[in-house]
Every structure is written in C-alpha cells, then in structure tokens.
Amino acid sequence: MAKFRFEFGITLFYLLLGGAWILFSDRILMTLVDSPEQLTEIQTFKGWFYVVITAAFFYVFLRRHLQKLRRAESRALESDRLKSGFLANVSHEIRTPMNGVMGFAELLKDPDLTHEERLEYISIIEESGDRMLGLLHNLVNISKIDAGQMKVFLTQVDVNDLVDSVRALYSIKAEQKGIKLEMKPGIKGKDEALIWTDREKLTSVLTNLLINAITYTDEGYVELGYRVLVSELEFYIRDTGVGIDESKQQEIFERFVQINMSYTKTHDGAGLGLSIVKSYVRLLGGRVWLKSSPGAGSTFYFTVPYKRSNLLSSRKGKSELMS
C-alpha cells in the first residue's frame, strides 16, 4: 500500500479532526443548551477555540518539522563541502605522485645518468606508486564499509610480532624526519601475546595511526605501546606533534576531514585514514578515542577484545574430549 505524502496526510488529519469536532460538539451542545441565541454564541466561541488550538498545534508541529529539515539541509551542505574538499585532496594526492612517476621516468631515459642516480629515481618512482596504491586501497575499503561488505576474519595473531613489524616498517620514515620511533610492548610472554583477531584490520589501524603521528610530528618522538586491561587490549600511539584543538577532536574521525586544517599545505592526505580506523575498530569490537591539545602533541587510544588464542584452543580441545 502506497504511503500518503506529508501534505496529503496533514490535510486529511485537519479535515477529519475538524469534522469530528463539529459533529460531536454540536450534538453535545444541543443536549445541554435550549436557547437558540445562547447556542449560536457558544458555537461561535467553539469555532474560534478550534481555530486557536489547531493553529497552535500546527505551529509546534511545523516548527519541529522545519527544524529537522534545516538540520538535514545543514548536514547535506556540510557533507557536500567535505566531499568537495575530499575530491580536491584526492585529485592532488593522485596528481602529485603521478607527476613524480612520469617526471622521473622521463629522467631515466637520460643515458648519462650514473648508477646511483638511476637507483634514486627508481626509488622515488616506487615510493610514488606505493602512495597511489595506498590511496586507492583506502577508497576501496571505504566503499566496502559503506556497502556493508567488509567482513572480519579471525586468525591467531602474535601481538608482539605484529606491532614490532609495523614499527620496523616505518622506522626509516621516522628517522628521515629526525624523530624517534619508540615501542613499549605490554605483553612479555609468548602465550599471552597470541590472540584471536583480524590481522589485516589490526595492522591497518596501527599503520594509519602511526602514519598519522609521523606525518604531523616534525620533532621529538612517536611512541607505540599497548597493555592488557582484563578482557581488552588497549593500544596507544603518542606523538609530540602539532596537536588537535578540542573542538575538532570528534569530527576528525569523520570522513573527508583532515587533522588541523591550517596544516593542509604541508601535511597532505585525503582525509580517510582516521575514518577507516574508526570503522575497523568498531568491526573488531573495540572503541577509539584521543587526548590532545594544540602544540602539546596527541595520544590516540583504541581497544580490541583480548581473546587468548591458546586459551580458546585448550577450551575447544577439552570440549571435544568431553564429547
């Protein structure tokens, strides 16, 4: 059955209410009042009463409805603004490494280049390609999240090894910027470090947060650590970077938003990394938050369920023996 449009519904409601009021109120008045003059006066008052009450009702109702429409319009305009900025950022993010690839590929045609120069140019081309590939990977992941097609695949993961591999992967980039990349593992035993989680998504969360910290830190250090909190693992990435104003600490996890808009000229990014972090952490059953202030650096926290791999395996073995 087709739904009534809003204007038809409100008109029908008004007509039914008015008809019911006239019909039943007149019948009641006829049983209570005998004088025609008095009945006319009361009916006039009754008509004005209906007009005033319905006017007040429609004012409140329409006011609330219009407020919702204005809020929706405001959100739509903000979304369009962010998407426009996002498309501009994506265009820049693709064009910059693409220009690097094309430019240095052209330079490689020079027969007089030394072996060291060729290796340097090839390294720049590889780095530019990795940058474009990372952007496309983020775009694909965002589309999967929106479509509800992003699945969680639990496997046995050694947290210590995973975190150390992520740290090692970006230690060179940190050294190139002249900052220290430190690691503080919170689990010492090998068995305690084995958990059930999605390796790819946990790696992606750590990678995005670590890249973010290194990008916005020009001096000092970046620290990656974690600890056990009963049934959760709490990870943190602390930096001595530019920091984030409190008014922007919630919106930076939204899509298309870059951290600290005043730094967009020196700190590139499409504004997708933290949105992916938020979505992945939720898929893993955790939460994400941060503590920061401008000029004092930032600390990003997130949790994942602490499901011991060896404990689950032993329980499964016991249940199989009992059966």
CATH superfamily caption of the largest domain: Histidine kinase-like ATPase, C-terminal domain
Main beta sheet strand tally, sense and closure:
5 strands, mixed
Radius of gyration: 32 Å
Instruction: Assign the CATH architecture of the largest domain.
Output: 2-Layer Sandwich
What pattern of helices and strands is seen along the backbone? HHHEHEEHEEHEEH
How much strand?
5-15%
Classification by helices and strands: alpha+beta
How many helix segments? 7
The first-level CATH class of the largest domain is given as Alpha Beta
- The chain-level mean pLDDT equals 80
Detail the poorly predicted runs: 260-268, 312-323
CA-to-CA gap between the ends? 53 Å
**Number of beta-strand segments:** 7
Regarding quaternary structure, what we see is single chain
Q: How many domain regions?
A: 2
CATH topology-level name of the largest domain: Heat Shock Protein 90
What topology, given as strand order, has the largest sheet?
A: 2-4-5-7-6
- Large-scale geometry: elongated
Write structural notes for this entry.
This protein is of the alpha+beta class and 323 residues long. Helices cover 59% and strands 13% of the residues. It contains seven helices and seven strands; from the N terminus they run αααβαββαββαββα. The protein has helices at residues 6-32, 36-107, 115-147, 159-176, 199-215, 273-283, 309-322; strands at 155-158, 180-184, 194-197, 221-229, 232-239, 288-292, 298-305. The chain has a five-stranded mixed sheet. Strands 1-3 form a two-stranded antiparallel sheet. β4 and β5 (232-239) form a beta hairpin. The longest helix has 72 residues, at 36-107. The two termini are 53 Å apart. Residues 260-268 and 312-323 have low confidence and may be disordered.
